[in-house]
Amino acid sequence: MIPQPQNRLLCRKCDNWNTVNARFCNVCGHRFEQDEYAGFWKRVLALCIDGIILGPVLAVIAAMIAGPPPPEVRDYVEHPEYAPLPEPAIRYWWLIVWGYTNIIGGGIYFALMECSRFQGTVGKRIVGIKVTDLDGHRISLGRAILRYLARLLSMGSFYVGFLIAAFTERKQALHDIITKCLVVNRG
Questions:
Q1: Which domain holds residue 157?
Q2: What is the Cα–Cα distance from 66 to 97, expressed in whole angstroms?
Q3: Rounded Cα–Cα distance for residues 26 and 184 (Å)
Q4: I need a labelling partner for 112 at 20 to 30 A (CA). Which of 23, 131, 163, 183 fits?
Q5: Residues 161 and 146 in one domain
Q6: What is the DSSP string of 101-144?
Q7: Contact 54, 103 (CB under 8 A)
């Protein structure tokens, strides 16, 4: 992979480098969009759409894995005044299963969709954005998995990792910077 020159913008039409503030490609004349990199709110909308699609599916899968609640939980829910409070492991079993199902299921969904020929999830496709490497090419499965794992860091930082996309030059979130990816508008 060729490293990206500093302060340069890649023309998506002819693959030539231009100064970052160029309005037109100096080789093919392609007009650069003012907002070629996907904006923060567009990315938020895509994530919300993915959550609406993925949430119910993962909830059903988690319910199938977790199974029915154990008798201790059922007794407590039906008669909290008589039944003893179940042990924490029993109380939180469904929550633990749901959490792991979301992490693993989300990882599979995001990684496979972002390295596919679509270069993005259903939400990204609907809002018209895609994930690329710094050279504008489709990312590999390995990079897509790393990007998802780095996204967990963005979430673990109280979403500050996502918020920095609103302030970086290429509108990159922390996970994009770590994995050397861009989220761009579809051309």
A1: 35-185
A2: 6
A3: 20
A4: 163
A5: yes
A6: HHHHHHHHHHHHHHHSTT-S-HHHHHHTEEEEETTSPPPPHHHH
A7: no
At 13 the pLDDT is 76
Same domain, 87 and 179: yes
- Furthest C-alpha separation in the chain: 79
Task: List the structure tokens of 87.
Answer: 């042990």
- Characterize the bridge pairing of strands 8-10 and 17-19: antiparallel
Token match 């996970």: residue? 175
Q: State the residue for tokens 């039906």.
A: 78
* Residue 177 parent element (H or E): helix 174-179
Domains in the chain, number: 2
Q: Is there a single domain that holds both residue 21 and residue 50?
A: no
Q: What is the pLDDT of residues 106-117, one digit of tens each?
A: 999 999 999 999
